[in-house]
Amino acid sequence: MPFYLGPAYLGFPSPASDYLEGPINLNEHLISNPAATFLLRAKGDSMVGACIADGAVLIVDRSIQVVHNDIVVAAIDGDIVCKRIKFKPSPCLISEHADYPPIIIVGDEGIDIIGKVTAVINQFV
Asked: What pTM did the predictor assign?
């Protein structure tokens, strides 16, 4: 896939660049550990505040240590969810939409953090 050298300015328009950098491999830019990475399609609107739209493709890496405020994929009693994880003041999974309440994590109550979302691919068609 061709990759244009110049950026796409988001403010006032700038003259377009006539130069190509060369082909770009999205796997090289989006996946650092292929053996531990998988793709998952998002369903719903609970993460729109994090720019994860319904139908987006999530790139999830199981090898990365999850820290406070990461966006993660988790299994809750067999259901797969994508949420922001908070460890303080108490562990919970947070949606990025005001209509969805936090999911409080109490002990080992059937919540398994599968991996960290490292990138999102949204389509606007």
From this structure: 0.82
